[in-house]
Amino acid sequence: MKVSELLRSGKPTLFTFELLPPLKGNTIQTIYDAIDPLLEFEPSYINVTYHQSETVYTEKKGLIEKKIVRKRPGTVAISTAIKNKYKITVVPHLICGGFTKEETEDALIELNFLGIHNILALRGDPPKGSRVFIPEENGHRYTNELIEQIMDLNKGSYLSEDLKHNYATEFSVGVAGYPEKHIEAPNMDADLQNLKRKVDAGAEYIVTQLFFDNQRFFEFVDNCRKIGIDVPIIPGIKPLSTLNDIKMLPQTFAIDLPHDLMKEASKCKTSKEVRQIGIEWCTMQSKELKAAGVPGIHYYTLSQSDNIARIASLVF
To answer: pLDDT per residue over 3-18, tens digit each?
Structure first.
């Protein structure tokens, strides 16, 4: 089922979550082990992330050797395996980075052949070690351009003009929103206008970047509505799970940790203690969001779901 249809179904707050493809060398069982504890909460859909290849330079016999490495392969394969094994709607990520327009079209055709009709469209992060996003030659620089290509396929318009059979696809597209502003945006107004361009291009719903202060989410929704963004907005949240999260999450995602959360987390000596604080805070967030009638709550699991299962057992 399309996510857009699930959101229009009239069901109460949907429970959904996101998975990372396993690092190269692991098996798909790591994915199944993350999904299985969450099945009792009847997830409406599961997202699978996509990670751009990295360029690695090594010295060999006095020469610098360039090598392209994909550390987490298999987004399409994993999405298909989940769909077939669990009969749950799956939403693979599709990014601008690392794709030409032709490669994007091929990926979309492949997903369509596999019966996967949901996409979360993203620009993607800059290459590792760079602060600047650089699109592929003849690729997309912005997410709204990627969405426009997907919408063209939905109309049966392909890149090759000489095709004899132009089958129209049926993709439902979601996009990311940032309650505390995208790290590269000059200000919140500019970020909201960029989000509106994505919605105007054809995005049917928004999933937010993680946040720890629900008031930031509610203000974000209000500001979206004021500029004419009227699609469903799904809060995306993640519990603190390690000591490293306390420093890493604000730096990586340009988000704030509320004073009360930081006060409790700073007392923790071990990751186990942080994990418990994270469960308690995320449960509080989830209950408040659900009471406010949000269309769904999307959990970032990093493919480790025991803490999400504990939270869901108290909320759903």
So the answer is: 999 999 989 999 999 9
What's the rounded Cα separation, in Å, for the pair 269 and 292? 34
First to last CA, the chain: 21
* Cα gap 12→292, rounded to integer Å: 11
Structural domains of the chain, ranges and CATH numbers in brackets: 3-239+289-315 (3.20.20.220)
Which residues does the chain have with pLDDT short of 70? 52-72, 127-129
Neighbours of 37 (CB within 10 A): 15
E strand intervals along the chain: 14-19, 45-48, 54-60, 63-69, 89-95, 118-122, 172-177, 205-208, 233-234, 236-237, 296-300
Q: Which amino acid is at 264?
A: E
Contact 59, 65 (CB under 8 A): yes
